[in-house]
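Researcher: Next sequence.
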Amino acid sequence: MTVYEKLVTKSMGVYSVGDEVTLADLCLIPQMLNAARFKVSLENFPNIQKIVKNLEEVEAFKKAHPDVQPDFKA
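Model: Next structure:
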């Protein structure tokens, strides 16, 4: 994550690469869901946190979240 944090510092806008959702964002979200699941601290990654927060507001990402899938079991 440290390398990704440094990379997005140069390329980020609202999302990982500018202001449009890209493949980088599609790959980032599952990793962040796993980081949350395993309680990985993200305090040293403010840019990643900002990107994820912005992505969480995108309707497609809301609908694709594992917690809202019909087969989700808590």
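Model: The chain has a mean pLDDT of 93. The CA atoms of residues 42 and 49 lie 7 Å apart.
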